[in-house]
Hints:
By secondary structure, the protein is α+β, with helices and mostly antiparallel strands.
Amino acid sequence: MPGENLSRDEAQERAALLSVDGYEVFLDLRSAIGESDQEPRTFRSVTTLRFRSAEPGATSFADLIAPSVTALSLNGKDLDPAEVFDGTRITLEDLAAENELVVDAQCAYSRTGEGMHRFVDPEDGEVYLYTQYEPADSRRVFANFEQPDLKAPFRFEVRTPEGWTAWSNGAGELADGVWKFAETKPISTYITAVVAGPYHYVTDSYSRTFDDGTTLDIPLGAMCRKGLAKHFDADDVFLVTKQGLDFFHDNFDYPYPFGKYDQAFVPEYNLGAMENPGLVTFREEFIFRGKVTQASYERRANVILHEMAHMWFGDLVTMRWWDDLWLKESFADFMGAFSMVEATRFTNGWITFANNRKAWAYRADQLPSTHPVTADIRDLEDAKLNFDGITYAKGASVLKQLVAYAGRDAFLEGARRYFKRHAYGNTRLGDLLSVLEETSGRDMATWSQAWLQTAGVNSLTPQVLLNAEGRITELSVIQEAAESHPELRPHRAAVGLYRRTPEGELTRYARAELDVEGPRTVVAELAGEEAPDLVLVNDDDLTYCKIRFDENSLDTLRAHLGDITDPLARALCWTALWNLTRDAVMPARDFIGLVLRFAGRESDIGVLQMLHTWADSALTFYAAPEWREEGGRALAEGALRELRIAEPGSQDQLTWARFFAAVASSDADLQLLQGLLEGTAKIDGLDVDQELRWSFLGPLAAHGLADERVLAAELVRDDTASGKRHQVRCLAARPSEAVKAQAWASVVESDSLSNALVGATIAGFAQASQRELTAPYAPRYFAAIERVWAERSIQIGMDVVRGLFPILQGDQETLDAADLWLDSHESAAPALRRLVLEARDDLARSLRAQVCDAAAAS
């Protein structure tokens, strides 16, 4: 990645000098099909860029990452590409007050999901293209000023192979073999987009008449590869889309500003989705090839609405620089859940948010790389890594707290004023705070300092004093912070009191909502109440904190967690218990025991799936090594028991089947999986579709019971892009020194695999049952990562550095090796050091948890 970085200082200097009037971009994509010996395979890109300079005679630069430039001219004067283009930047000297730059380049198709990604469908040989730019990869497709605050209108023209369709941000039409697209509103470079190929395309429309009598008509489209068309439930995608547009029009008082609304589900996508105005792109895994649970549909709806919220938060009004990435991502994450709960069938979305989304935030906020929601982003590598649990999930949690603090009406009115005041512009933190102060009357500067400009997560613990009659004399909330981030924040929180009923249910009988401030806050409203069996601080999940319990409450949960009737309260308790396990306060075997005892009674399928993930992680990383085999048997037995008693054909049955496959290890368990695959065994109601077949084949391959021949036969059965990814993962999972060597070489020593197959290989390489096989790769990892980071794209570099870190070794020797690398590579790229530091911290956490778990046996 040398030369590809851009610093904040450079961007600020360029923004002060330049303003952009518009782009005209012509792309000739006919080279995407047909045989080619050219490496890399390229396409022609011609950019005409009109811009002004505040200082005539000044020097600046344009961004372009391309194998070659054919011709260059500035203000009609031809420039020698060899003299002004270094592979990443075009030097622009002696600028005029008004300028025109024309760049004719050969740009490379991508196999890493960055820039113009080219995918060949193994099912039918068809080629599909799409672009993905955030934060700074549009420069791989056309010459530009690659920073969010140099917005401009764009006109795209795209020549494609005959029979293809192309889409971009604006509406398009085919004329003389070229797709010509309407000029966009002023937008940032990173949200421009092109999709092209023989996609399956479905249309619909949305219409809205406003109070003033005006009508807004929005053409809707949705597309996927032809091979997925039979699985594509576009009607449900359109349903959620229309519900979202209604919600945002009801609440934002600013009509959708970008004309049409296409949604493209594309292959080998690195992200969940991307908010390109008028042409949102999604990972195609949101088109379900087999039976999935309601949680999968909820997740897709949340992502659709998250990206739609970006049309206002991010696209209409954009952060000036990546420091304020939260101004779009935190808001979209919050509004995705908010709109989903209020406008769609997924009315329990806040449960998923509390149990799943916030768990991502809690982990990120306890890493040594934690940062304030408003971060210090020095350059593009920093920006790439800050698409993290803090920017998304903590930021969204903080906004949920803001709604409780300022009030829903004040929050939404602030958003409305923000859009109208800054439409098509760029903003910073203060621009939003000023409108929120106007609408709420609250001191936003103090709130921002506490919540947006400091890092770390507080813990809230109840302290209960009772009198002789068994009533509360005083209930306090104790707030604590980590030594590294000692900020104690103001929390708008609810405290709930729960007790068991004669019927055995654990229900809330009293609640108080209050401002928690400082190290100790007395909850005066609850004095005099009967003694509770459970005190739940942060009841209803109003604030962002780690919930702790007093001893009596913890004893209640150990015995009666499944009796809590409210699903949100139950989810909050599960999350709190998981945090205790990660913090080495609760032994991993105790957490696993709670899952085995109570998970079968969980009514929310998303929570159940999260419990399965946590239980597997507890066994793999946090359990004492000497107990893992026993714990694994217990989990497999429990999963099989629940699988057999689950309602036939239910989503619970499917969820337990997947979990059973994930933890199966005994001969009997593996024989059952094999029997279910071959049809010699049966569980009533369990439909072993293609996706479930691959779920069963994974553990069979990892335990040496599905060899290359078996996996090749399965690929013949499922000769699709998805099937190929599954096969590659299973092949790399086989327990063989030669297999591991081949997998390692294909990812670390070669760049021949696409991003999707790199990810599949990494997923198969590291198996918890194969620690001895992968142990020799720990020193090789530390020897290779700096070279990999320098030679590969940032996305692939991140995948390799994160995915191959030897955390499964789970020993002090590996921790020492990580420390040695960090100590001896102080000058390595900061983003690379951050990735290693985060993985090192996860390993140190697992070692502390193992000590805690081992102590439980003594």
